[in-house]
Amino acid sequence: MSREPEHHDPSAGEGALAASGRREVKPPKASGVHLEDGAKVPSATPAAQSGPEHVVEPVAYDAILLSGFGGPEGQDDVLPFLRNVTRGRGIPDERLEEVAHHYRRFGGVSPINDQNRNLRQALKSALAEAGLDLPVYWGNRNWAPYLDEALASAAEDGVRRMLAIPTSAYSSYSSCRQYREDWADALEASATQEIIQIDKVRQFFSHPGFIQPFIDGVREAIAEATQAGHDPSSIEVLFSTHSIPTQDAELSGAGLFADVEGGGYAAQHLAVAEEVMAAAAPGISWQLVYQSRSGPASQPWLEPDINDALEGLEDRSAVLIVPLGFVSDHMEVIWDLDTEAAETAERLGLWSRRTPTPGTHPAFVGALVDLVRERIAGRPVGERANATSLGPWFDVCRPGCCANRRLGFAPAIAGLQP
């Protein structure tokens, strides 16, 4: 299922409840965002409002907003959840059921909510150990607990300045700007636009704490493959991430990668993969592949698909599948990689292993704490943790970065308009 955004469908009904008592419908699209004179960054703290690429002014935040994609937690949740994900695209329930069977095979439960519950707890503990007295509110884009519920709760608790952490490391419409749009929706739906200011941490693909879990996973899998009798020359490493439309990819990364096929989205993944391989398995063959594409066949998406790449490994006996584009396990990991790709590898006679996602790896949780500390302190760019040739990414998204031409402009915060 694509992670593409959706426009508000007025016919969807407001406040519908699932059988569990949870609300079925995500907040409607924002009708507007408070914009100050001079193209100020909407709903941002004063340090970020003028739109600097990197905020080097200390900011006293009241809380953290951990933001996830969301996922169903029972069979009755599956279709309402998928309607939220695809809202505004006119997809009938019969077609949604083609994707729903992925969830139904696992009892209608995506692992993503439990993953985020664990991440929230790990982050709360790590912040406390670092001496940072910051509560962590958690809200999802597409299922309970929703972002507007998290913001309403934060406002009631007296929170006024929040630093948002999206559970996505890279730049693209679906992995960055759509979060910014959904924060705008949630602010309006919770009537907190004039109460709460939200900044966001930089896209954290280049932070060594995000990269370290992948290094550990590749090292362990390489050792396992060699113990199973596979020579390093017979091993291929496939770094897998979610495919996106090529048009979206071209607009990712603030237009800085016009000469790179796949734009900033691909460039960032390639930079991370290079660091992983240099540290974990120098000399072993690898490639960047994609998964989970959807949409009409006439629309170009980033390729190659992981299953096509597996078909092309005629001179390999072992393959390592690295979910480089994902912070934690969810349906697109356990279905597209652990089920479909694993079945393809088995059919081809390939020994295969899928390495872990960062999840609650101590290095990753430590990285999130470091991202919070750098914004609290206003840390200069040259002193920020970075492990790739691309350097620390922007704190404030640039004009037009990761826009979606097919859907047009939608209100967004934590970045310069449009």
Task: Explain the overall architecture.
This protein is α/β, with parallel strands linked by helices. It has 2 domains: 217 residues, Rossmann fold (3-Layer(aba) Sandwich); 147 residues, Rossmann fold. 36% of the residues lie in helices and 11% in strands. The chain contains 13 helices and 8 strands. The strands form 2 sheets. It has a 4-stranded parallel β-sheet with strand order 2-1-3-4, with helices on both faces. The protein has a 4-stranded parallel β-sheet with strand order 6-5-7-8, with helices on both faces. Strand 3, helix 6 and strand 4 form a beta-alpha-beta unit. The protein starts with 45 loop residues before the first helix and ends in a 41-residue tail after the last helix. The N terminus is likely disordered.
